[in-house]
Amino acid sequence: MKISNETKIGVLTALTITLLVLGFNFLKGKTFFGKSHTLYAKYTNVQGLANSNPVMINGLQVGTVYSITTDKNMKQILVNMNLTKDVNIPKNSIATIKQSLLGEVSIDIKLGDATAFIPKNDTIITEPTTGIFNEILSKVDPVFIQVKKAVASLDSILFSVNRILDPTAKNNIGATLNNLNKTTANLIGASASLQILLNTQTGALAGTLNNLNSFTANLDKNNGKINNLVSNLDKTATNLSNLDLQQTLTTLNTTISDLKSTIGKLNSTSGTAGLLLNDTKLYNNLTATANKLNLLIDDLKTNPKRYVNISVFGKKNTSTGLTVPLPDTVNAPYLKH
């Protein structure tokens, strides 16, 4: 079977594209024939990190950087790492970006001591690096770092001294001294006023003491009257205590008890007064008697001949009398029973 040139060219082109894609992904660190999984890390500064840069754990490369993406604000950069080795990474592990002396940038994962591990396609904790030079200085001699901090502190102290000695601060210090002089003068004046106040001849305190002496002298002169007043109050209190208040309270309690008993009898139906107030039979009987009396009066008005026959030739009225009183809707309507 003869294969056409077009078919050969098409197959060769497909193989070339396939090899190109596989080679490109291989250069980026992603393999298709081995076990690998993805791990993410978020940074604010990647310090020149690029695709295919190595991912290291304890000096051994376990993967590569597959892609680096960010948003328009550039506040957070997401790094996609492709781990080609099957390793257990504790959850409290930290991924930092390191740069070697030759300028090679890599991600170094410091393993933590947690018992739980980071699952696949999850995000690892990150922390910013201090920079290669600071790291070298801290490893060479930690005294350099302390000297740097001391220089910074000395610079802050000198800046503070310069602020104190500037013209504005000098004016403030002068104003403070002036206020201190005024305060001293006020204290001197207050001391003089206090001396006048304490003067035994003309001071206000001396006048107050004289008035107090006069008041105590008047109390001494009226001592007899005060004693009489106290005696009268004592007699009044004695008379009040001698009053037979207990008997009065007992009588009042007895009266209240009798009043309660009387009201109780009125509320009950055991006595005549109670029956008059609480039993409705007397009211109903009086009402029935009034109705019968009204019926008799109305029948007498309507059929007088049934009761009085004054006609010599007239015929006696033998009609049936009223059974219901005549209605009186103006004065008092009758009750029907």
Written overview of the protein:
- The model has no long low-confidence stretch (mean pLDDT 77).
- With 337 residues, the chain is α/β, with parallel strands linked by helices.
- Strands 1-4-3-2-6-5-7 form a seven-stranded mixed sheet, with no helix packed on it.
- Among the domains are: 1-32; 34-129; 280-337, no CATH class.
- Helix 2 packs across helix 3 (142-164).
- The chain is built from nine helices and seven strands.
- It is flat, with a radius of gyration of 61 Å.
Please give the oligomerization state of what you see: single chain
Q: What share of the residues does DSSP label as strand, in percent?
A: 5-15%
Cα(first) to Cα(last) distance is 133 Å
* Apparent shape: flat
Query: Can you write the helix and strand succession as a string?
Result: HEEEEEEEHHHHHHHH
Helix content: 40-55%
- Mean of residue pLDDT values: 77
- Count of separate DSSP helical elements: 9
Class from helix and strand fractions: alpha/beta
What are the segments in which pLDDT stays under 50 over at least 5 consecutive residues?
Answer: none
> What order do the strands of the largest sheet run in, or round the barrel if closed?
1-4-3-2-6-5-7
Which characteristics define this entry?
337 residues, alpha/beta, 7-stranded mixed β-sheet, 9 helices, 7 strands, 13% strand, flat
Question: What's this entry about, in short?
Answer:
With 337 residues, this protein is α/β, with parallel strands linked by helices. It is built from nine helices and seven strands.
Layout of strands and helices, then pairs:
Blueprint lengths: L4 H24 L8 E7 L10 E4 L2 E11 L6 E7 L10 E6 L5 E6 L14 E2 L5 H9 L1 H23 L2 H31 L6 H18 L1 H20 L2 H23 L4 H7 L2 H22 L35
Parallel strand pairs: 2-6, 5-7
Antiparallel strand pairs: 1-4, 2-3, 3-4, 5-6
